[in-house]
Amino acid sequence: MYISQQIAANAVNQVLSGRNLTLALPAALALFPSATPQQRGAAQDLSYGTLRFYGEIDAYLVQLLEKPLTDDRINALLLVAIYQLLHDKADSFTVVNQAVHAVSQLKRPAPKSWAKGLVNAILRNFLRQKDQLQAKLSANEVATYSYPKWWINKLKTQYPSHWQAMLETGNQHPPMTLRVNTQKISMQDYLQLLTRQDIEAKQIGAQALILANPVPVEKIQGFADGIVSVQDLGAQLAAYLLDAQAGMNLLDACCAPGGKTGHILELADVALTAMDSDETRLQRVQSNLNRLKLKANLLVGDASTTDWWNDAKAVPQLFDLILADVPCSASGIVRRHVDIKWLRREADIASFARQQAKILANLWQMLAKGGKLLYITCSVFNEENQQQVDNFLQLNADATQLPFALPANDASLEVTHINGQLIPSNAHDGFFYALLQKH
C-alpha cells in the first residue's frame, strides 16, 4: 500500500502546484512502472479522495504542524495518510506504518533523517487528538465543506436554499449513468440484459439509467456495439431540448468528447457539423461516432471566430439549430473532477464569462431566422449562466429565451432544476440550459 500512497502523494502534490489531475495522475503512475493493477487502482482512489476532501484534511494538518513543511512531498504524503485515517477503511496502524515507510523511499533529494519520525509523530498525534481537533474546526467552513471560501460564499449568495446540499453533493462519488439507444433496443430489454449480468440499475429517464455500482465500460453489455453510451442524465437533456427534426442543418460547437453529438444523431437524421478547437479531442469524437455507427462533418475550429465558417465549403451558410456547449468553470461537475475546486480561482469566472459572451455573439450570426440556439454550461455559477443570457438578450433584439421544458411524457425523469439551472443531485450533475430563438 505504501506504493499507492507514494503515487497518490505525487499526483496530489502536482495538482496543488497547479497541474490538472488528468495529467498529474498518469505522470505519477509512470514513475512506478512496476506497480500492480491493484496498487494503481488504490493510488487513483487515494488521489481523488484526498483532493475531494482537501479542505478538511489540510485544516487538520495545519493544526498538527508547528510550522509549514518545506518539503512539499512530505506534506502531500501526510495529506494522503490523513485522508485514509478519516475516510478510508484501512487499518490506522497499517496506514501510519506505510506512510513512515513511504517517506523513507523518497529520493531526489532524500529527506532528512528526522522525516520518518516527524511523519510518525504527526499521524499518531492526529489519531490521539482527532476529537479535539475536530471541535476546533467546527466553525471552519472550508474544513466542513472542503471547498474554497469564495466558492462557498458564491453559492450562499446565489442559492440561499440549496447551497449546503450542492456542496455536499459535489463531495459524493459520481454516479455511472448510461444512455440506451432505444432505436436499437428497448429500455426494458436492456435492463433485462443487465439483470442477466447481475448488474443492478435504475431507470431515471426515457433513455437513462444509473448503475448501482460502477462497471468498467468494456464489461457493459452492448457498449462496444453502440447500443449504450456513458453519459450523465443532465447532459442527455441537450438532445431533447434541441428537438432536432429530420433534414435540419445543425452545428454542435465545442463538441468534444462527442456525447451530445452522438445522442442527437441517434434521435434524428440531420446534417450535423461537429466542431472543436482541439484536433486531438476531435479524434475522440470520431471514435465515439465510429462506435455508434453514425456520421457527422467534423471540423477543427474556434467557436469564437468565423474563420472556419467562411473557409469550410462543406458547412451550410446558416444553421437551423446550434448547440453551444461553451467552455466554463465546470463547477457543476466537480464530483467528477475533484481538482477543479483547488485549481479554479474566483477571477477565472469573469474570464470564462467573457469567452462565453464572445462565442455566443459569434455563433448567433450563423443561426437562420426562426432557428434555435441551445446555450449550455456545466457550471452552477450565475455569471456564466442566466446572467450571461440576460446580457445577451439585452444586446440582441432578435433573440428570445424560450421556456425550459422537460419531456412531458417522461414520467421517469428525475431532474432537479430552477428555470434551466440543474441543481446537482444524486441523479445528475449541475448543468445550465437556455434555449434561444432568432426572430
Layout of helices and strands, plus pairs?
Elements: H1 2-16, H2 21-30, H3 37-52, H4 54-64, H5 72-87, H6 92-104, H7 114-136, H8 141-145, H9 149-158, H10 163-170, E1 176-180, H11 187-196, E2 201-203, E3 208-211, E4 228-230, H12 233-242, E5 249-253, H13 259-267, E6 271-276, H14 279-292, E7 297-300, H15 307-311, E8 319-325, H16 340-343, H17 346-364, E9 367-377, H18 386-395, E10 399-402, E11 417-418, E12 421-422, E13 432-438
Q: Quick summary of this structure?
A:
The chain is an alpha/beta fold and 439 residues long. It has 18 helices and 13 strands.
- CATH superfamily grouping of the largest domain: Vaccinia Virus protein VP39
* Shape, per Cα inertia axes: globular
Give the helix proportion (percent range). Answer: 40-55%
Number of domains: 3
The name of the CATH topology of the largest domain is Rossmann fold
Question: Could you describe the largest sheet, including whether it forms a barrel?
Answer: 7 strands, mixed
Structural classification = alpha/beta
Q: Describe the strand arrangement of the main beta sheet, using strand numbers.
A: 7-6-5-8-9-13-10
**Architecture of the largest domain, according to CATH?**
3-Layer(aba) Sandwich
Multimer state: single chain
The top-level CATH class of the largest domain is Alpha Beta
Residue stretches low in confidence (pLDDT < 50, at least 5 long) are none
Q: What is the number of helical segments per DSSP (H or I, 4+ residues)?
A: 18
Strand residues, percent: 5-15%
- Kindly report the average pLDDT value: 94
Compute the number of strand runs: 13
Task: Specify Rg, calculated over alpha carbons.
Answer: 24 Å
Distance between the termini: 62 Å
